[in-house]
Amino acid sequence: MTKHWVKEYLLITFGIILVAIAVEYFFIPNNLAAGGVIGLAIVINSLIPQIAVSTITLVVNLILFVVAFLLIGKQFGGKTLYASVGLSVIMWIIEYFFSPFAITRDLIIATIFGTLIAAFGMAIVFNNNSTTGGTDILAKLLNKFFNINMGKALLIVDIIITLAASVVFGLDIGFYAMLSVIILGITVDRFIDGFNTSKEIMIMSTSVENIGEFILKDLNRGCTYLNGVGAYSGEDIKIIYAILSRGEFIRLKSYIKEIDEKAFISVRESYEVLGEGFMKME
Questions:
Q1: What's the longest Cα–Cα distance across the chain?
Q2: How high is the pLDDT of residue 164?
Q3: In the predicted model, is pLDDT for residue 209 greater than 70?
Q4: Which residues, in sequence order, are bridge partners of residue 204?
Q5: Over the chain, what is the mean pLDDT?
Q6: C-alpha to C-alpha distance for 266 and 163, rounded to whole angstroms
Q7: Residue 270 phi/psi, 5° resolution?
Q8: How far is residue 189's CA from residue 167's CA, in Å, rounded to a whole number?
Q9: What is the pLDDT of residues 58-85, one digit of tens each?
Q10: How far does Cα 278 stand from its chain's mean position?
Q11: Do 136 and 122 touch, CB atoms closer than 8 A?
Q12: Which superkingdom is the protein from (predicted)?
């Protein structure tokens, strides 16, 4: 349990570092208020430059954190507090010790690469049942109570902030900010799907028992025997059904190749598996 807890928080830390890098080196220098509390903070900072973006982000996040803690639960609230405060602290460190600059002034490059880096970081955080704070909390509420996936929920919430950016920075910057929001909404879900993808397999072989034993003992996974009848031969057959990670499937395929090269294997991608040995039902 402790190892799992440490792993989750290390992943969350890595995720918010990526988000902070995207914000400080791609978004803020180019006035790309791409949604979220950070986008709102960029707009406010342009009007009141004496207040740092990291400070504005922290204050608003703390307010929204109370909402998450009350409506979503203590575990989510604790992780979100860590992620939101941690993100503000990392941004503050970058702002005051590393003098952030625009890696590129090309708005297209800044929009695309900044958004991809931020989306990857957010996906890591979301996948560990947390958020980077801000409007991500509102998106998580939509996800929890209305079953709207995280990417679309973010899109709905962030459009309003990009409209504010259009008013403050002009339509051109506003359109780039909107493009960033759209890319973010699409790619966050794709990244999360990629993290959780498993292989759903069915195997027909003359060495069913050996393969089943390999899955149980060597891979430490469960499997199920299904009874079937060959349409051509009319013979009774056993079919193995199992769900494995990518690495486990590669090991299984190598093993099957050694003992039965004529085995028939059907493989499908499974983007979400809940239960023992996989993700917990939150």
A1: 81
A2: 83
A3: yes
A4: 239, 264
A5: 84
A6: 48
A7: -120, 115
A8: 29
A9: 888 777 777 767 776 665 567 777 888 8
A10: 16
A11: yes
A12: Bacteria
Strands 224-229 and 264-270 come out as unpaired
- Report yes or no: 160 and 112 within 8 Å, Cβ to Cβ: no
- The H or E element that residue 106 is part of is none
Of 264, 254, 266, 267, which Cα lies nearest the Cα of 198? 267
CA-nearest of 6, 28, 30 to 19 is 28
- Best CA proximity match to 272, nearest among 197, 192, 191: 197
User: What is the 3-state secondary structure of 14-58?
Assistant: HHHHHHHHHHHHHHHHHCCCCCHHHHHHHHHHHHCCCCCHHHHHH
Q: Using CA atoms, how far apart are residues 106 and 149, in angstroms rounded to an integer?
A: 31
Give the contacts of 269 (CB within 8 A, at least 6 positions apart). Answer: 197, 198, 199, 200
List strands edge to edge, sheet with 264-270.
224-229, 236-244, 198-204, 264-270
Q: Is the pLDDT of residue 240 over 90?
A: yes
φ and ψ of 248, to 5 deg: -65, -40
pTM of the model: 0.73
Cα-Cα-Cα-Cα dihedral sign, residues 157, 163, 165, 168 = negative
DSSP string, 48-97: -TTS-HHHHHHHHHHHHHHHHHHHT-HHHHHHHHHHHHHHHHHHHHHHHH
Q: Within 13 Å of residue 9, how many CA atoms lie on the same side as its CB?
A: 11
Domain boundaries, the chain: 2-195, 198-270
Fold of the CATH domain 198-270 = Alpha-Beta Plaits (3.30.70)
Q: What residue has token string 């709102």?
A: 40
